[in-house]
Amino acid sequence: MSRDPSITLAREVPILEGIGLRKHFGGTRRLIGRSSPTVQAVNDVSLSVRRGETLALVGESGSGKSTLGRLLVNLLSPTAGDVFYEGRNLGNLPPARLNQIRRELQIIFQDPFSSLNPRMSVEAIVGEPIWLHGQQNRRERQERVVELLRTVGLAPELASRYPHEFSGGQRQRIGIARALASGPKLILGDEPVSALDVSVQAQVVNLLEDLKTRFELTLVIVAHGLSVIRHMSDRVAVMYLGEIVELAPVDDLFDAPLHPYTQALMAAVPVSHPSQRRPRTLLGGDMPSPTAPPSGCRFHTRCPHARALCREVAPAFEEVGGARRVACHFWQEIANAGGDRLLAPAPMPALRKRLHLFNSHSN
Ligand SMILES: Nc1ncnc2c1ncn2[C@@H]1O[C@H](COP(=O)(O)OP(=O)(O)OP(=O)(O)O)[C@@H](O)[C@H]1O
Ligand code: SF4
Ligand SMILES: [Mg+2]
């Protein structure tokens, strides 16, 4: 029997897709004094999130992870570019439909203490989205809260207590219960475990993984640390100064990081055995300000492999086989050299074309 092609097509539509996303903050003109500089928090990022996957966004502080995550779940509107949810452009939807979609895109925060209203009981915190959803019957709402608390591993008797009466891990569970109360399809976890004790982190990661399977969720996880990412994600997008510099399935990224910035992040991950040690890539200096990003490749001021071309021409975010993409003029030579030495450029057609462009540009 032949398959209905529309079913295949529907399955292939990513749950979320950002195209050409930019988010610039500030840049306002003042009548008196200097105008504030524009912060290029996210700069021309295109990224899709596949249904059912866990996609991680990693990078140093200030690289734009939270801003990109918030753009994707419509908590921020882009300066330019579009976000598509299940194929629909969120920028063109009527407010009622957008509100409905917002319920399907939930967020859990790094610090559950500041994200939970201290004056509301757990019952009110978790029950509020259910009430907003239209469930006016108090008894039914309470039953749903009890069910959600059990789902996240909290005793229902705790429903009358307030956030300050809980530990960090318990508060994060309350935040997760509140997110689940809206019946989400996708959850953005913005550093969901980094404020927790190491012993509690694994419990919350395991809970998120269980919930993902049970409720068929898609997860986008923002994280500094690569260890959490390795454990729980399917694909990883590495961000530097507002741009994605490498996107790869998690095992490929850990086995052979291609971008010098990813290599530097990996070199900082502790390994359990000396044989697993990677060549050291030194990451000198601080990340430049996103108000005045470097020309060409934004990483050139810190990259040990940078050459003249890098200062002038921004590398394309090119597909490099399989499901991988990388933004580096010299990724192949760096990979050939084992990541820590740069060999003379191989006669690659793509590189020759870029060098030609660069030479004609500099003349
Ligand atoms: N509302 C805002 N107004 C002005 N600048 C902002 C705003 N939000 C973020 N930024 C700036 O945008 C850049 C990216 O910030 P963002 O919070 O997305 O980074 P991040 O990768 O999540 O960092 P962290 O790991 O510290 O949370 C930073 O330079 C930040 O100061
Ligand atoms: S393009 Fe140049 S500066 Fe940028 S990462 Fe590659 S080698 Fe380094
Ligand atoms: Mg952040």
List the helices and strands and how they pair.
Elements: H1 5-12, E1 16-26, E2 38-49, E3 54-58, H2 65-72, E4 80-85, E5 88-89, H3 95-104, E6 105-108, H4 112-115, H5 122-132, H6 138-151, H7 168-180, E7 186-190, H8 198-214, E8 218-223, H9 226-232, E9 235-240, E10 243-249, H10 250-255, H11 260-267, H12 308-312, E11 318-319, E12 325-326, H13 331-336, H14 349-362
Parallel strand pairs: 3-8, 3-9, 6-7, 7-8
Antiparallel strand pairs: 1-2, 1-4, 4-5, 9-10, 10-12, 11-12
Bound molecules: adenosine-5'-triphosphate, iron/sulfur cluster and magnesium ion.
What does this molecule look like?
The radius of gyration is 23 Å and the shape is globular. The strands form two sheets. An eight-stranded mixed sheet has the order 6-7-8-3-9-10-12-11, sandwiched between helices. A four-stranded antiparallel sheet has the order 2-1-4-5. With 363 residues, it is an alpha/beta fold. α5 packs parallel to α7 (168-180). The chain has a domain at 1-95 and 225-269 and 288-363: Rossmann fold, CATH 3.40.50.300. It starts with a helix and ends with a helix. β11 and β12 form a beta hairpin. It contains 14 helices and twelve strands. Helix content is 36%, strand content 19%. The longest helix has 17 residues, at 198-214. The structure holds adenosine-5'-triphosphate, iron/sulfur cluster and magnesium ion. Magnesium ion binds next to α2.
